[in-house]
Amino acid sequence: MQPLTSQQQETILAAAPGYTLTLGNAKSPDLDQLARAEIIIGWGKGIADTVLQPGSPLRWVQTWSAGVEKLPLGKLEERGILLTNASGVHAEPITAVIIGFMLMFTRNLHTAIRNQLERKWHSDGKESELTGKTAVIAGTGSIGSETARIAKAFRMKTIGISRSGSEVDGFDKVYTTAQLQEAAGSADFLINTLPLTDETKGLFNADVFNACPQGAYYINIGRGATTDTEALMTALNSGQLSGAGLDVFDPEPLPSEHPLWGMEQVIITPHCAGTTDRYADRIVELFTGNVQAYLKDGQPSRNLVDYSRQY
Fold it and tell me: Which domain of life is it from (predicted)?
C-alpha cells in the first residue's frame, strides 16, 4: 500500500467535512483508533474482532484491492457494513501486462531474453503477430473491457465470458460462464481476469485447457486459486498449451522449488500486474467520490460489493 501524500490527504478531508483522517500501519494496526472508526480505507490482519464487535461505529470499508476474498465477508454482511472495493483502479496497468504477455509470446521475446543472457544469436523463425488472433477474456469488467479495447487496436477478435453473457462494448461476442469450454475452443489466448469466489475456485481446469486449440496460451492476472495448477502444468508439458503468463498463484509467494519456475514457456510476475505509481491517486479519486455519495445518500455510489456474489 502506497502512503498517502499530504495533497491526497487534503483531498480526502475536503470531501469529508467534519471527519478526521488518521493514517495507520496495516502490519501493526492501532486497534484503539480502529475501534472508533466509522470508515476504514484498507484492511489488516487481526482487526476484525475489534472493528466488528457489538457497538462498533464502523459503517463502511473501502478496500485497497479489487479482491475481497480475504475479508470476513459473512461477518461484514451480518453487521450490515457497506463494503466497496478498488475495482477499476487497476485497468490500465493490468491491461498493459496482459498485452505485454501476448506480445512476448507472439514475438518470442521471452526466449530472446534468455538467449541474450547466454550471448546466443538465435531465432527459431516461429515469430507470429496478434493481428487476426482471438482473445477469449473471462471477465468483462473494467480490466477485461480495457484489454478488449486495446486488443482491437491490434485487430484481434475479442470474446468475453461473464455470468450473464450480456453484450459489452469492445467484445465481438460474450458467452456465459457456463459456456467457458465452448468459448475456449476459439482461444489463441485464454485470459483470466476473474475474482476468487465459490463459483470461480478451480474453474480453469483440465477440461477447459483441453478445450482450447492446441498451442493456445493462458494468461492469469485474476486470482491463483481460480486455476487448477496441476492441470495447467500438464497442459503446458504436453504441448496442449504453448505457454502461460502468470501474475497470480496458489500459494503466494510461489515457492522457490515450484516447477513453474523452471518452465521456459512460462512468464512469471510476482502479483504486481496492478502495481503502478498512480495507484494511490486513483484510489483517492474513487474514495472521495464515494464519500460524497455516502454523506448525501447514506451509501457509496461505486464498487459496492454484492455479498451474495462475493465481489
Answer: Bacteria
- Decide if 107 is catalytic: no
Give the CA dihedral 42, 48, 52, 57, nearest 10 degrees. -40
Class of domain 6-88+276-297: alpha beta
Q: What pLDDT, on the 0 to 100 scale, is given for residue 1? A: 61
Q: Which pLDDT score, from 0 to 100, does residue 295 have? A: 97
**With left for phi above 0 and alpha for psi between -120 and 50, is residue 177 left, alpha or beta?**
alpha
From the candidates 127, 167, 230, 252, give the one annotated as an active-site residue: 252
C-alpha of 137 from chain center:
13
In tens, the pLDDT along 88-120 reads: 999 999 999 999 999 999 999 999 999 999 999
Of the candidate CATH numbers 3.20.20.370, 3.90.25.10, 3.40.50.720, 1.10.10.10, the domain formed by 91-268 belongs to: 3.40.50.720
Active site annotation includes 252: yes
Q: Would residue 302 show up in a list of annotated catalytic residues for this protein?
A: no
Mean pLDDT in residue range 159-164 = 97
239-269 pLDDT, tens digit each: 999 999 999 999 999 999 999 999 999 999 9
Catalytic residue among 199, 271, 282, 285: 271
- Whole-angstrom Cα Rg for the chain: 21
Identify the H or E element spanning 40: strand 39-41
Average the pLDDT over 293-303 and give the result: 97
Which pLDDT score, from 0 to 100, does residue 27 have?
A: 87
Task: Give the H/E segment covering residue 135.
Answer: strand 134-138
Q: How far apart are CA 215 and CA 26, in angstroms?
A: 43
| Eight-state DSSP code of residue 262 | G
DSSP class of residue 179 equals: G
CA 20 to each of CA 6, 9, 43, 256, 294: distance values in angstroms, whole numbers, following the listed order: 14, 10, 18, 44, 16
Asked whether the predicted pLDDT for residue 54 surpasses 70, the reply is yes
